[in-house]
Amino acid sequence: MRDDSNSMRGRIDRRSLLTAGTTTLAGVGTLSSAATAQNERDGTADSADEKRLAQQDPALLQGPGELESGETVDGEFTGGEVGHIYTFEATAGDQLSAEVSRTGGQGQLAFYLADSIDGGPGYTLDSVSVEVDNTDSFTGQQGPFVLSGVAQVTGTHSIIIIPSPYPEGIGQYTITYVNDG
Predict the structure, then answer these.
(1) Bridge-based pairing state of the strands 109-114 and 122-130
(2) Which of 50, 43, 48 is closest to 18 using CA atoms?
């Protein structure tokens, strides 16, 4: 019979790695890591803390305004931007999705589909970190990528794109947002 108290000896506890994997970006706050997002996608996320976009300040992000369901937008990082934000209204229970991809440039772009940001921090529903060649930074899977989740609250929700700092994430991207109600 195996002694479970020693079964983890010499192994790294996955949960502690995930909860430690956050990124703080120049005034934007703490974002769940893309490693955590992959675990959210495959159903192995451990807690709400891993999904939190803590201390998010949307005023620091650049964005064109509000998206409508079915709308496709093309954007580009040219250098020096903290991030881009696209907002949309959703009702609690709505099934939200965003297809994201990128072409060329340098560095990585992290895409976040976030729950309501009204009056405080939002929560990451799904995210992916994308390389220059439109592959997932962690799995190597080829894009485009579909981010999806169910709105937990009614209000203004967002798609946030954050460029990597070194090398600086620059280049073009495309987003198609859909609210399936």
Answers:
(1) antiparallel
(2) 50
Token pair, residue 52, equals 């939190």
At residue 121, the pLDDT reads 56
Cβ neighbours, 10 Å, residue 27: 12
Residue 50 DSSP SS3: helix
Q: How many whole angstroms separate alpha carbon 114 and alpha carbon 126?
A: 7
Cα–Cα dist 45/154, whole Å: 23
- To the nearest 10°, the Cα dihedral for 110, 116, 121, 124? -40
| pTM of the shown model | 0.68
Q: How confident is the model at residue 51 (pLDDT cuts 50, 70, 90)?
A: very low
DSSP conformational letter for 94: -
Are residues 138 and 129 in contact, defined by beta-carbon separation less than 8 angstroms?
A: yes
User: Which CATH class for the 59-179 domain?
Assistant: mainly beta
